[in-house]
Design a protein that fits this description.
Elements lengths: L1 E9 L6 E9 L4 E5 L6 H9 L6 E6 L2 E2 L5 H11 E4 L11 H11 L8 H12 L15 H13 L5 E5 L7 H17 L3 E5 L11 E4 H9 L1
The chain binds adenosine-5'-diphosphate (ADP) and magnesium ion.
């Protein structure tokens, strides 16, 4: 599902650079990504999602080489095929929760907003415990509620790949387990692939595999 070869990336400003010689995630795999703050975990998710482009190397998702698509095609590919739970949620503050969750459907014709979609959105929000917050704006939500709204938005199009950047980072222990259960259930029911950055080491046994960013550092230095 994800195939990275000889990836090299750096930001226009700053010292940071990321080198990933080789990384493969199989379809249906549930993989945790760990590593110290600032090691490039969010940068990697942005590269996989096609938000950033590598300077060298290849990033392929589901046999599509995202790194060679045009900007417009990369964007459509991301919206339709990848569910991204951003570390800082990226909810639009001028939309209520329901409209935020439906937003991907409104910005691309590749997703079809038929009458069944809002019903699924409401059911998903109920499952995630924010069913009573659908009319609220993001400024009126707690961090944990924002996070759950961001998860709903990512899951609604039933993407083949879910990229989640610390999806349980703002949740209390009880909600943490529940949200992870729901993420895993949704992933399993659509046979999707999950790549989740996490700092919760107690959650790691729930994943098939762990990718540790320290390994990339070592290979980059070697
Ligand atoms: P992590 O998610 O592992 O905490 P990030 O991928 O967010 O790490 O950041 C990796 C490094 O890249 C950090 O040193 C960060 O300061 C730097 N960085 C992140 N975004 C940018 C940017 N837009 N421009 C320049 N440097 C950035
Ligand atoms: Mg990060």
């Amino acid at each position: 599902m994800i195939d990275i070869e000889a990836l090299e990336f750096h930001y226009p400003q700053g010292e940071f650079s990321l080198s990933i010689p080789h990384m493969v995630v199989a379809q249906g795999e549930k993989v945790a990504v760990i590593g110290p703050s600032g090691s490039g975990k969010t940068t990697l998710l942005n590269l996989i999602a096609g938000i950033s482009k590598p300077h060298q190397g290849k990033v392929a998702v589901a046999d599509q080489t995202v790194s060679s698509l045009s900007d417009a095609k990369r964007r459509d590919f991301r919206i339709t095929r990848i569910g991204f739970v951003f570390q800082d949620f990226e909810l639009l503050d001028y939309l209520n929760v329901l409209d935020n969750i439906l937003h991907p459907y409104r910005i691309t014709h590749a997703l079809n907003l038929n009458s069944e979609v809002p019903q699924r959105a409401i059911a998903l929000a109920d499952e995630l415990g924010i069913g009573d917050k659908l009319k609220r704006f993001s400024a009126e939500l707690s961090q944990g509620e924002k996070q759950r709204a961001a998860i709903c938005r990512a899951l609604l199009p039933q993407p083949q790949l879910i990229l989640a950047d610390e999806p349980t980072g703002n949740l209390d222990p009880r909600n943490k387990g529940r949200i992870l259960d729901l993420l895993f259930e949704n992933v399993a029911s659509s046979n999707a692939t999950l790549l989740a950055v996490t700092h919760d080491h107690e959650l790691l046994p729930r994943f098939d595999r762990v990718i540790d960013f320290l390994d990339f550092r070592n290979e980059a230095v070697a």
